[in-house]
Target: GMP synthase [glutamine-hydrolyzing]
Amino acid sequence: TVLVVDFGAQYAQLIARRVREARVYSEIVPSTMPVQEMLAKNPAAIILSGGPSSVYAEGAPRLDREIFESGVPVFGMCYGFQLMATTLGGTVDNTGAREYGRTPLHVSKSGSTLFEGTPDEQSVWMSHGDACSAAPEGFTVTASTDVVPVAAFENDEQKLYGVQHHPEVMHSTYGQQVLEHFLYRGAGLTPSWTTGNVIDEQVALIREQVGTKRAICGLSGGVDSAVAAALVQKAIGSQLTCVYVDHGLMRKDETEQVEKDFVAATGVQLKVVDAEERFLAALAGVSDPEEKRKIIGREFIRVFEQAQVEIIAEAAEGEDVAFLVQGTLYPDVVESGGGTGTANIKSHHNVGGLPEDLEFELVEPLRKLFKDEVRMVGQELGLPDEIVQRQPFPGPGLGIRIVGEVTKDRLDLLREADAIAREELTAAGLDRDIWQCPVVLLADVRSVGVQGDGRTYGHPIVLRPVSSEDAMTADWSRLPYDVLAKISTRITNEVADVNRVVLDVTSKPPGTIEWE
Ligand code: XMP
Model:
């Protein structure tokens, strides 16, 4: 394992992903973890991330010098680089030599482990206020910039390396190469970590955790729950029961993909609860977005818990239903401060005549994986592309893509329009270019149009294609006009009561991705 020490910016996750892209397993630890504890994990190498602090600021995160004397190869980036410099006797000061963004780096690579095979002049991503003016004793300076005399250094003998820039950022042209040079040449690691290893390891862990008991998994139609379920199914087979709540707010064919394709691919035992009528009844007359979300959330929990209770009741004597499978991913784990993954959750239900609380232990087989790795695991487990490559879709489904009251007719109409948009985007090969494309029905708006010989008075459909890295921010996708034209023509021709298609050209912020 390569440990990535997180100094409190968003960089650590990106570094961990890049290390894994180099086929070396990595994990993130907070910089507040005592060095003793880091070393006790027996890391093959350690990477120190960037961070927002100045090494001289009061209360700035530090590391015990021992980390550099333990013999474990260490690579410091940005803040990590400056910390390595000051801890080992180099000089870092606030020279006013700030650099932000793309910066030309001058490399003197003779004998350099990190930069070998890369150009003498390369573009890197910088983000720093302080600068290193003298490397620690025994270190060779391997790069500089126009304003920073020491922009990279290394001490091959002690296996210590540092760069002022951010090699993990895409804009550092040779960043991945520099990182791989550290891993393979500096630390002597071999690229052997694969999603196949992950599957074998998780299958063994799940078997050990669950034993002969039973587990339940809620399928949402999304990637994470599907892959988690498939992995647990591989491990414990018929001891797993999946529950799929059909709330009637899914897109066209999505329920069938879960009911048929997913079951066919995994052989999982699936309980489908058809709750469309219940959801529609609960949503009748409601058009406030927050209220709709609350109703959908509340009904979902009730239906799911009812299903759990039924599964428990159906289980044979001595079959303890003790586990709940969840598709928690690594970013959620890191952002919620780590944890061991053995938490219990209590599910308070309201079905008469049964115990007040259902208590489950969680099984979270994806809690060490990033999203793209989850997709690879899903692929390796033989799940269909329609599920594995699916774009994000909100839990409340089309319920929050109808601006206005949700009714069966409106849902059917939106399903048709959405299916056309998805079909055309796929046909144009754009699925990987866009993050997602909500299709929204403005049910309370009508506009005048003309079709055939007659006047129409129909609803607009909004297309909301966005590009994004993580859904926190987004930009509207510049889709080719001919693709937009095709979608527009087909929707107005094929979907009754829709006579206008409009394009949302708002970034996030200020607009959210969804309309409600
Ligand atoms: P917004 O609209 O907040 O959406 O920009 C950000 C991302 O989250 C998705 N989304 C949801 N996902 N349950 C979910 O599982 C929800 O209630 C929900 N609301 C929004 C949205 O599709 C986008 O990817």
Remarks:
- Confidence is low (pLDDT under 50) at residues 339-343, 348-354.
- The chain has 15 helices and 24 strands.
- The longest helix spans residues 289-314.
